[in-house]
Amino acid sequence: MDNVIVVASGKGGTGKSTVCICLSVALVKQGKRVLLIDCDCGMRGLDIMLDIEQDIIFDASDAVCGNCSFSEAVYKSRNNDNLYLMAAPFDTENELSPSVFKQLVDAVKNDYDFVIIDSPAGIGSGFVTAVAPADRALIVTNAEPTSVRGGIKVRQKLEALGKSNIRLVINRFDKKVFNQLGFYKDLDDVIDATQTQLIALVPFDIRISVIMQRGVAGLNWSASASVFDCLALRLEGKRVPLAFTG
After folding, report:
1. What integer pLDDT is reported at residue 164 of this predicted model?
2. Which one of 21, 88, 95, 190 has the fewest CB atoms closer than 10 angstroms to its CB?
3. Pairing state between β 83-86 and 74-76
4. CA–CA separation, 3 and 88 (whole Å)
5. Cα distance between residue 126 and residue 233, in whole Å
6. Are 232 and 25 contacting, i.e. CB atoms less than 8 angstroms apart?
7. Which residues touch 34 (CB under 8 Å, ≥6 apart)?
8. How far apart are the C-alpha atoms of 31 and 80, rounded to whole Å?
9. Which residues, 6+ apart, have CB-to-CB distance to 50 below 8 Å?
């Protein structure tokens, strides 16, 4: 199974990192061993969401520079057995090149059932690095024109980089607000506009944001958990219906 998945978005604020965490927790609940890699150099945040900010000594750049072993740059989540994190460098000058990052992921991926890579928003150099080792890609958008346009740009760039296994996650969906704004006739219009097959629709739930910022993912959970459980099963090739359809 292709087990290295990059999660990307065209613009910031779509909830991409939250999707990474929630998906990883769902995979762990299903008995999988998961490595999260934060590729947002200079703006890392997954360590806070997993409540291991104070534990981080080494990051991905330390591992490839020889400051530590690869295993020493991997940290276990406090609240989730079998969920691990490799943090992004704090300084942008330590951003890894695509070829070096691919070598790093190739060296560790066989120790895990899934490797989830949190790409920086946009399609800059950090995105190109994050995509390099990926077998599959998830594009996270919101159901609004600027986010959809960003999603299209991400898809085009992914295809230019030789990635073809691409799926769409529409995040923070609120049907009432969606209908009131009237940007699109229905969800099918959003999906058609992104030119990408939908794999998950995630409802807006303020509790998810609170859980992430408190670093208690996997301990306190929301009603949206079933959506990520379904997404995890779909990524494993299981034929299950969407847990939420709007």
Report:
1. 95
2. 95
3. antiparallel
4. 20
5. 29
6. no
7. 24, 27, 28, 82, 83, 84, 112, 113, 114, 115, 116
8. 11
9. 21, 36, 77, 78, 79, 80, 83, 85, 215, 217
- Residue ranges of the chain with per-residue pLDDT less than 70: 1, 42, 206-223
Q: How far is CA 21 from CA 25, 56, 111, 164, in A?
A: 6, 17, 19, 24
> Quick one: which of 104, 31, 113 has its CA closest to 73?
104
* Residue in the block written with tokens 């560790």: 108
pLDDT tens profile 19-69: 999 999 999 999 999 999 999 876 778 888 888 888 999 998 998 898 999
225 vs 112: CA distance, rounded Å: 22
Structure tokens at 65: 């520079």
Distances (CA, A) of 146 to 13, 30, 63, 107: 11, 35, 37, 37
- Residue whose entry in the numeric block shows the structure tokens 């769902």: 26
